[in-house]
Design a protein that fits this description.
Blueprint (H helix, E strand, L loop, with lengths): L1 E7 L3 H5 L3 H8 L3 E5 L17 E5 L9 E5 L1 E2 L2 E4 L11 E5 L4 E6 L10 H19 L4 E6 L12 H4 L7 H12 L2 E3 H5 L9 E2 L11 E2 L2 E6 L6 E6 L11 E5 L7 E2 L5
Parallel strand pairs: 1-2, 8-9
Antiparallel strand pairs: 1-15, 2-4, 3-4, 5-16, 6-7, 7-8, 9-13, 10-13, 11-12, 14-15
Helix pairs in contact: 3-5
InterPro entries: AP_endonuc_1, AP_endonuclease_F1_BS, AP_endonuclease_F1_CS, Endo/exonu/phosph_ase_sf, Endo/exonuclease/phosphatase
Protein name: Exodeoxyribonuclease-3
Family: Belongs to the DNA repair enzymes AP/ExoA family.
Length: 264
């Protein structure tokens, strides 16, 4: 079995002071992925143990975006970005293992005024083509903040949010197209009718207490990994960010990599 966790921490340095280490230790993931690290190289010394390899993709802009992956399983290769091994906003990291690829991603937000929607849609096309290219080689697992509530069941107030950033017809259509390209939304695959399960809440007063949220953090897997999917969870009770962690447990066939030995 392999457990993978994803969490948009909305500033890792702040999250570390709000229980990050407690959750990291308790969840005991084989791979732990984070988005919106909002830091530069050398700004944090993460105390997660020597058994984890650490991979960071920093945004050029300070205090913005950024992703990281911490893995007990030594990857065959690491890639940053899509077309090239570089991505100025630090949004993507790809780890290659023996029998699958694992990608963490922080999808661009189209902004409240939708001024970045055209860029977002173009980016979505490049990202989908990238996933399809990888999927033609070996199965793919994608996790992260995809910045879209796909269906009405995925947010508390769908009718009043139609056309808003993260729930525009264009963004939802891109998710439909991605899933139609041979990928599974793991949580909906296991729980197609489960309501009131969200991964992001506004910081406005009482919003989280009333569970007025959106499910915008996902694990997607290649369709042929469907039989390997054991569990998909949303840890709604975990605080420390405006997002909560999400996870999957997979039974990967064959050898999925080399587990690093614990070093004491």
């Amino acid at each position: 079995m392999m457990k993978i966790v994803s969490w948009n921490v909305n500033g890792l340095r702040a999250c570390v002071n709000k229980g990050f280490y407690d959750y990291f230790k308790a969840v005991d993931a084989d791979v732990f992925c984070v988005q919106e690290t909002k830091l530069q190289e050398g700004q944090i010394a993460l105390e997660i143990g020597e058994e984890y390899e650490q991979y960071w993709n920093y945004a050029e802009k300070k205090g913005y975006s950024g992703t990281a992956m911490f893995t007990r399983i030594k990857p065959l290769s690491v890639r940053y970005g899509i077309e090239e091994d570089f991505e100025p906003e630090g949004r993507i990291i790809t780890l290659e293992f023996d029998s699958f690829y694992l990608i963490t991603v922080y999808t661009p937000n189209s902004k409240r005024d939708l001024s970045r929607l055209p860029y977002r849609l173009e980016w979505e096309e490049r990202f989908r083509n990238y996933l399809r290219q990888l999927d033609s080689i070996k199965p793919v697992v994608v996790c992260g903040d995809l910045n879209v509530a796909h269906q009405e069941i995925d947010l508390k107030n769908p009718k009043s949010n139609v056309g808003n950033s993260g729930f525009t017809p264009e963004e939802r259509d891109k998710m439909t197209t991605l899933l139609g390209s041979g990928f599974i939304d793991t949580f909906r695959y296991l729980y197609p009718e489960r309501e009131n399960m969200y991964s992001w809440w506004s910081y406005m007063p009482k919003i989280r207490e009333r569970n007025v949220g959106w499910r915008i953090d996902y694990f997607l897997i290649s369709s042929r990994l469907g039989t390997s999917l054991q569990e998909a969870e949303i840890d709604c009770h975990i605080m420390g960010s405006d997002h909560c962690p999400v996870s999957v447990t997979l039974e990967i066939p064959g050898n999925f990599g080399v587990i690093k030995p614990y070093e004491h």
